[in-house]
Design goal:
four-stranded antiparallel sheet; about 100 residues; alpha+beta; about 40% helix
Length: about 100
C-alpha cells in the first residue's frame, strides 16, 4: 500500500510540473533569415520564465514554452518582439 501511495505521489508531482507550463505561439511579420531567428532566440533565452524557444521561419511562428509555474504575459512577449524590430500579428496560448 505504501508503494502505491509513493508511486502515485511521484506521478502527481511529475504531472503537476508540466501541467502549468504554457506554450505560447506568436505569429510574427518580418522573420526572413537565420539571423532573425537567432536574435529572437537569444532575446527569449534571457528571460527566466522561458524553458524553450523555437523559431519557424517558413511559418513566421515563434513558439515559447514557459517553465512550470512561470508566467509570461502577452504584453511582455509583444514588447520583446517589437523591440527586436518585428511585428506581432497574433498570440495564441496552449495549456
Amino acid at each position: 500500500m505504501k508503494k502505491i501511495i509513493m508511486i502515485s505521489a511521484v506521478i502527481m508531482t511529475m504531472i503537476s510540473g508540466t501541467a502549468f507550463a504554457d506554450t505560447i505561439k506568436v505569429s510574427v511579420n518580418g522573420l526572413v533569415c537565420a539571423f532573425c531567428a537567432s536574435g529572437i532566440e537569444k532575446t527569449f533565452k534571457k528571460i527566466s520564465a522561458v524553458s524553450n524557444i523555437d523559431v519557424d521561419l517558413e511559418k513566421k511562428l515563434v513558439t515559447i514554452i514557459t517553465k512550470p509555474s512561470e508566467k509570461l504575459d502577452d504584453k511582455t512577449v509583444t514588447k520583446l518582439i517589437t523591440d527586436a524590430g518585428y511585428q506581432v500579428t497574433n498570440i495564441a496560448r496552449i495549456k
